[in-house]
Prior knowledge:
The chain is an alpha+beta fold. It contains 16 helices and 19 strands. The chain is globular, with a radius of gyration of 22 Å.
Amino acid sequence: MGSRRSRTGVTVAGIAALERSVRGTVARDPKSLARVVSDASPLSAPALAVVAPVDAEDVLAIVAWARKARVGLVPRGGGTSLAGGAVPVGPTVVVDLAAWNTVVEVNASEGWARVGPGLVNLDFQRALQPLGMFFPPNPGSWTRSTLGGNLGTNASGPRSFRYGPTRTWIRALEIVLGNGRRVRLGTRALKRSAGPDLLSFVVGSEGTLGIVTEITARLAPLPQVREAFVVPVPPTARLGAVASRLSQAAGTGLSAVEYVDGTCASAMAERRRSLHLTGEALLLLEIEADDARQAARRRARVLEMLSSEGVSSPATEVAPEALWTLRGEAGTLLDATIGPRVREDVAVPLGRLDELVEALRRIASEEGMGYHLYGHLGEGSLHPNFAVDPTGERGNRVRARVVRTALALGGTVSAEHGIGLLKVPFLVEELGPGAVDWLVAVKRWCDPDGILNPGKVYPER
Ligand SMILES: Cc1cc2nc3c(=O)[nH]c(=O)nc-3n(C[C@H](O)[C@H](O)[C@H](O)COP(=O)(O)OP(=O)(O)OC[C@H]3O[C@@H](n4cnc5c(N)ncnc54)[C@H](O)[C@@H]3O)c2cc1C
């Protein structure tokens, strides 16, 4: 038995040694393995096993085992990465953190909570609600994605318009690095100037430096009033001008400025008829206020600003939580409408947004393919969708055209989904060789054996 090797060269005895090293479970049955071959990206590959650690000691043992066995480790939360960040590459064991989902401690008066990395975002929001607090990042995947994954990708959500991405909302974390060292970063203090910010470096590192075992999140007080409403957008409106106008206005309490085109809006209307959405392109907006009168004033002001940009249709009020969950499903609904597609994630400065929108239309027309758009308009962060096989030659060409257009407009190749596997070739185009060499040097120190999330983020150098 000791010498029997799997297809990848890892001995069965090697996996048995992993089983003996941890208190958590190690699964190799077909159902468990099938669950982790892919994430929400179009990519997939098999894993050797799935290990579910129960504490940081287990994670230390897993890392020590992987270094010795020369096996990759893929940290996995909800598996909703759209960039292939949680897909196995090479001989790999998936480290499943989903069951590590407790709220360990909340200090509402100091505005922080200590949580396990597997806690699902919406479960966290619901636990905080009775305490009058919330965690502002609310990605469209909030019903399934975890705090560890949100941290791993520096996720944003509709409310990032007012509150910023996940990076802003992490006070401290504990991590087991790929070199086997256990490190605590950040403090509970409100401010800190103790050297360069390593904590911020870990946020967005997509499981390539270490496995995060505990998160201290920063919390915000729940506003007294939160109102969401939708406004139809005529085809003549300039989306960039609308976004700039809304983002520059002070005192509106606007916490979200989202956009969905007519196809997405129709699919959303069909999915949740009770929300009475129309099938036209829509702005989805949210306002926060201290009381109902202030909310009404703020809403009137926003509608006035929209009117000056040629968006003057009546607004329909909807329940915020239901709206953001439905908006999060926009991509999944398009799966049913247009099938496999390049699903992009770029951002540009607001002043260049209209140029981006125009360029995206041009790319679709020149490539002769269907095209649909939604996104976090108020942040200049768009998700254009092109009806083409996302892993084929044409799909790769369209992806390259989109990300290079965003770069040429002073933007980024990934607004929020991360680099994962899909965007590796473009990282150097955004950062330049000097910064990429710096990143690679840090990666090598944190993970000298290259066991953590192999193939992701860093180009081969
Ligand atoms: C329907 C849908 C809507 C979405 N909407 C949004 C959106 O509005 N905004 C947005 O930003 N993203 C969005 N996403 C993308 C995705 O949900 C986010 O990237 C999310 O943060 C991933 O969380 P997860 O728990 O699923 O992580 P996973 O997919 O499991 O992992 C994501 C990355 O984080 C790493 N990771 C996970 N846990 C840990 C850990 N404990 N330690 C170290 N690394 C870890 C993984 O290795 C991987 O690289 C959406 C995805 C879907 C499918």
